[in-house]
Amino acid sequence: MTNLAALPVGTRLADDYRIERVLGAGGFGITYLAEEVPLARMVTIKEYFPVDFAVRDNRQAAQPRSEDCTGDYQWGLERFLDEARTLARFDHPNIVRVYRFFREANSGFIVLHYEDGKSFKAWLKGLGRAPRQHELDRVVPPLLDALALLHASDFLHRDIAPDNIIIRSDGSPVLIDFGSARGDIAQHSRTVSALVKPGYSPYEQYATNARQQGPWTDIYSLGATLYQAVTGKRPPDAPSRMVADEMVPARDAAISSYRPGFLAAIDAALALDITARPRSIDAWRKQLMAPAGKPEPAVEPEPVAPEPAKTPRTAGKSKAKPAAKAKESAEERDAAVPKIIKEAKEAKKAPAKAAVASEAQPPPADVPRRLISEGKVAAIFSEWRARRAEAKAKEPPKPAPAKPAAAPAAAVAAAAVTPSPKANLPVPVPRRAPKPARPKKKRSWRPLLFKAAIGFGVAWLAVAYQNAPRIERQGAGTLSSGTIASYQVGEIKGHKGSVTGVGHSSDGRFVVTTGEDATLKVWQDGGRKLLRSINLDAGKATSLAVGSTRAVTGHKEGRVTLWDLEYGLRVAAFKRNDADIWSVSFAGSPERILAAGNDWKLTLLDARTPVLPVHVFDGHENAVQAVAFSGPRNLIASGGADRTVRTWNAETLAETRVYRGHRDHVVTLAFAPGGRQLASGDLAGNVRIWSMTTRRLERSIQAHKGAATALAYSGDGRWLATAGQDGRVRLWDTTRPRQPRTLTGHTGEVRSLSFAPDGATLASAGVDGTVRLWSTAFMTRSGS
After folding, report:
1. Core vs surface per residue 529-538: b (16+ CB within 10 A) or e
2. What is the reported pLDDT for 396?
3. Whole-angstrom distance, CA of residue 583 vs CA of residue 665
4. Average pLDDT value for the chain
5. Cβ pair 313, 304 in contact under 8 A
């Protein structure tokens, strides 16, 4: 579960700005899309909100997390506003424009021009291939100009990465999301690791002071960004390279054709030793943009798709031209596309050949695709057609059907080949004798009308009965199918402050809870008896997953811990980096764990090798905030701040599907038993149910006012429980669109849900410090 401390949608700032949605969130601030109401335009607003030492009060105002954090908070606020003043001085088309900045609610806000485009990362992905040299030559020079202006004013960007460069619709780039103030704040508060981006930050940015940083720091980051573009992979992170530099140079790893000097300049920018890097943008530009000594025209003929059904006449209409006039011998392997086009043009002049070729069938399956790519298509098809025509001629004529006028196949073929004006005349076909008509019975309509009336009456009664709220009273609990209902059978209180997570062990022996008080508690007898309480040395848990005898907790600063529930012992601890963990899940075994992080990555961990992750899934374009696993389908699902849901094959570790449609961050996921369905919920309260069989959206539900915070399926997969920021728990019948059952009782946000393995109870955990247990017996009684 994710709980971003963002201002609610609709919040007014400085009387002029209305927040529309969250664009992104990091360790030091939150970025919003907002409307400037008086001018009726969209703007970007950055809020100062360092999550390590800031919280919100009941009025949504920011304040230091504790008295010890007050100094760091105020110092960082001043640096944040100083950066706004500095950026406002720059008027450059490739540097994001600052409109204004102001203080409000004990925080700082910067209003920026809204750049409507794609991030460089999304732009690269949208190409579907490596960018061409001329495409990069259009992007790089404006960025160099912008950086040169910044450096001339003794200012560094300090956070250049593919996600901090926007490519506008006209193809021009713009630098956004400067990290200079964040760097100062990080160094002042000793949280530098929250600033660096693995792969893009040079080694000097990992230091606790900025004495070794300079223009060469931004040059390294932009060089790493270009390395990602030309190789398809980001460089290894700088600390790993310091231990063992396994980075493949760009000149060897490039997956397309680029100027040698361009690749050499990228390698120079990525030197670990700062003295080996270019010292200024101007010095680097000379190498990066230097023209090649003898430019060779890059002739890249379009690949010929194997479409044998086209006739030579159709192929002759191709606009492709020969790339060279050199003679080609019959033995040459690269016969090339122009030869095919030439043969097609010659075939165009031979109507008889064209007519025969028009009956061509797809080539045999044993034709290697390699030969198609090597330009031998024409020769293969010519030989194949000759063989097929010869075989067809030897075939005995098929017995004619019962129709007396059916012409023999050979005669039809001859008519098609012979250029005779009579060939197109229709062949007369004698009509069959009509069948004798059967006498029609006279039908009486009176019984049919009587049956229809009875059916209509029964259907009306059934619908009326179904739509009427069904009310049952048992003790003090009241259940209503159409309106808000309460059917609580128990309550667990044991934490000081909010309860952040709840889960049942798969064998039903334990109920496990985590709280704001940084403890994990194990309960027996359905929550009636506390078995043990474990202090979480990594701090309060941001997420919880429970297996049979083990539980895993996710924490801030990238910490993940595996616990033994029977003995209360820590089994393993993981930490890949300092990015906050938002969601965890077991991945098919008690040792394998999935962790979704604020670093845009999903990580697969194994308790047997806790030092290094098994795999890092890279695909999301913002923080990964939810993860789920389906054992029967061996499928992993992840959702994030990029508003997408992605599925991954747990065996091959490859991405299998991207589901789009959410309008806000996807913060919770749940697989139905058997993996037939996947439910996803977002910060706008929308829940979507996806079919894993058809890979399509089955249903979209506006489940809650505010965020949908948790999801859980019943054991039979029929009922989906949703929890929300509005304090409601709702139960939806996934088999048909009915009114949900709504369970009330919590005061404030409900953060976590869990069905008992036997399906008898549903547990919900809330910020009111309680875990409420609800009977699910009504689902079986009213579910028929």
Report:
1. eebebbebeb
2. 54
3. 14
4. 79
5. no
Comparing CA positions, the residue from 302, 306, 307 lying closest to residue 372 is 306
CATH superfamily of 121-288: Transferase(Phosphotransferase) domain 1 (1.10.510.10)
Residue 313 has phi, psi (to 5 degrees) of -70, -45
pLDDT by residue (tens digit) across 450-474?
666 676 665 655 544 444 333 333 3
What is the gyration radius of the CA atoms in the chain, in angstroms? Answer: 34
- CA distances in angstroms from 187 to 58, 161, 464, 772, listed in the order given: 30, 20, 67, 44
CA distance linking residue 587 with residue 615, whole number of Å: 12
Q: Which helix (H) or strand (E) element contains residue 572?
A: strand 569-575
Judged by DSSP in three states, 291 sits in: coil
- Greater pLDDT, 314 or 511: 511
Q: What is the pLDDT of residues 203-250, one digit of tens each?
A: 998 876 777 899 999 999 999 999 999 999 999 999 889 888 999 999
Tokens of 734: 């996934």
In the prediction, which pLDDT does 193 show? 42
Cα distance between residue 114 and residue 264, in whole Å:
35
Burial class (CB in 10 A: 0-12, 13-18, 19+), 340: buried
657 half-sphere exposure, CB direction, 13 A CA radius: 16
Residue recorded with tokens 């609800």: 774
Cα–Cα distance, 146 to 136 (Å, whole number): 16
Tokens of 291: 């023209």
Phi and psi, residue 516, nearest 5°? -65, -20
Could you tell me the fold of the domain covering 12-113? Answer: Phosphorylase Kinase; domain 1 (3.30.200)
The CA distance from 374 to 367, in Å, is: 12
Contacts of 682 (CB under 8 A, 6+ apart): 643, 662, 663, 664, 665, 666, 667, 707, 708
Q: Do residues 191 and 133 lie in contact, with contact meaning Cβ atoms separated by under 8 Å?
A: no
Provide the pairing of β-strand 484-485 with 741-743.
parallel
Distance separating alpha carbons of residues 88 and 739, to the nearest angstrom: 53
The interaxial angle of helices 336-348 and 377-394, nearest 10 deg, is: 50
The two tokens of residue 754 are 């869990």
**How is residue 612 written in tokens?**
């290094």
Q: When comparing pLDDT for 134 and 2, which is higher?
A: 134
Confidence of residue 609 (pLDDT cuts 50, 70, 90): confident
What's the pLDDT tens digit per position in 405-451? 333 333 333 333 334 333 343 444 444 444 444 444 455 556 666 66
Span between the terminal Cα atoms of the chain, in Å: 33
**Domain extent listing, the chain:** 12-113, 121-288, 484-782
Tokens, residue 110: 């910067």
Q: Top-level CATH class of 484-782? A: mainly beta
pLDDT at 672: 96
As a whole number of angstroms, the distance between CA 431 and CA 584 comes to: 74
DSSP 194: G
pLDDT at 382: 54
E-strand spans in 75-220? 98-104, 107-113, 117-119, 165-168, 173-175
434-468 residues labelled b (16+ CB within 10 A) or e (exposed): eeeeeeeeeeeeeeeeeeeeeeeeeeeeeeeeeee
Separation in Å, CA 177 to CA 25, 87, 161, 281, 666: 11, 11, 10, 20, 23
Q: Which of 718, 704, 722 is nearest to 764 (CA)?
A: 722
Query: Contact, 689 vs 697, CB < 8 A?
Result: yes
